[in-house]
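User: Here's a chain of 115 residues. Predict its fold as tokens.
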Amino acid sequence: MATKKKATQEIILKKDTKTKGKALKEKSQPADNPYISSSFWKSMWIICGISIMLEFFIHRQKHFEELESSVLGNMSNWFGFYGMFGFIACSGCILLAKGLSVFLKEKEDYYDDTP
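Assistant: Prediction complete.
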């Protein structure tokens, strides 16, 4: 199976080199080796930097006026609160999914018995 896959990838690469620049080499990366271009990562760093810089200049409205004297009421006004909240929520979802996978996991030969 692996040799057939490798041979197919080589054929695709040979077809790309035969076009001599007429078409973009879209198939140069194998399907099981995803690649994200460096321009994508640069743009993500720029967007993150801009959002952090905006933290200094944007005035925040109080969402919980009745909890004004408590720490929990003022947390939404902290610097970077929404970034930390998003990171903690995403991490919690990943840990919850890993915990559920222990209970929902099937045997390796689950589909072998089907006709």
